[in-house]
Amino acid sequence: MALFDAFTAIVRRDLVLALRRRSECANPVLFFILVITLFPLGIGAQPKLLQAIAPGIIWVSALLATMLSLDSLFRSDFDDGSLEQILLSPYPTSILVLGKITAHWLTTGLPLLIVAPLLAVFLGLPNQSLSILLLTLALGTPILSLIGAVGVALTVGLRRGGMILSLLVLPLYVPVLIFASNAVEMAGSGLPVAAQINILVSMLLMALVLAPWPTAAALKMSINS
C-alpha cells in the first residue's frame, strides 16, 4: 500500500503541475492535429490516396507529438532540484519513475487517443479500422512514453539534449510504428490483425517491466555527473 500511495502521489503531483501549464500540455495535441490536417493540403484532395496512407499519417504524427513532449518529463524536476528529492526518497526510484511516466501518458498519449477518431474520419479511414486504430494507440503510446523516458533520463543533464534524444529513441520507436500502422491498414482491408496486436501487447508488457529500472539508473547517473 505504501508503494501504491507513493505511485499515486507522484501521478497526482505531475497532473496538478500539468494543469498549471496548460499551454505545454496542449502543444503535442495541437501539433498532432496540425500535422495531420496539413497532409490533405500538401498532397491534394485525393480520397483514395488519403485513405491508403491514413494509418501511417496518424501514427507518424502521434510519434512526433510524443517526442515533442518528452523533454518535459524530467526537465522541470531537474531544473528546480525536486528530481534529487525523488531519487533520495525511501521508495524504489523505479516506482516513482513509473508514476511520472504514467502522468506523462495521461497528459500526452490520452489526449491523442481522444482526438484521433475525428482526424481518422477527416482522412477517410474506413469505419472497421477505427477500433483497431484506437486499440493500437492505447497500446502503442504508453510504449513510446516508456521508451522515451529512458532516453530523457540519459540526456536530462545535457543543455542541448534534444538532438541526442531523437537519435536515441527514434530507432526504438520504429517497431511500434511498423506494427501499429500495419494493423490499422490490414483491418481496413478486412484481414486479421491478431498477430500485430499480440506483438504490441508483448512490447507494452516488456516496456512496463524493463523500462523503469534503466530510467532510474540513468537519472542517478545524470544527477551525479
Question: How is this structure best described in words?
Answer:
This protein is an all-alpha fold. The protein has one domain (2-224). The protein has eleven helices and no strands. Helix 7 (109-122) runs antiparallel to helix 8 (127-155) and helix 8 packs parallel to helix 10. It is elongated and about 55 Å long. The two termini are 34 Å apart. InterPro entries: Cyt_c_biogenesis_CcmB, Cyt_c_CcmB_bac. Pfam families: CcmB. Required for the export of heme to the periplasm for the biogenesis of c-type cytochromes. It comes from Methyloglobulus morosus KoM1.
Provide the descriptors you would attach to this structure in a database record.
cytochrome c-type biogenesis, 85% helix, cell membrane, elongated, 225 residues, transmembrane helix, mainly alpha, membrane, 11 helices
Distance between the termini: 34 Å
- Helix/strand-derived category reads mainly alpha
Question: Can you tell me the number of structural domains?
Answer: 1
Q: Give start-end ranges of low-pLDDT stretches.
A: none
How many alpha or pi helices?
11
Mean pLDDT: 88
Elements, N to C (H/E): HHHHHHHHHHH
Helix content: over 70%
Spatial extent as radius of gyration:
18 Å
Organism: Methyloglobulus morosus KoM1
GO biological process, one term: cytochrome complex assembly
Protein name: Heme exporter protein B
Function: Required for the export of heme to the periplasm for the biogenesis of c-type cytochromes.
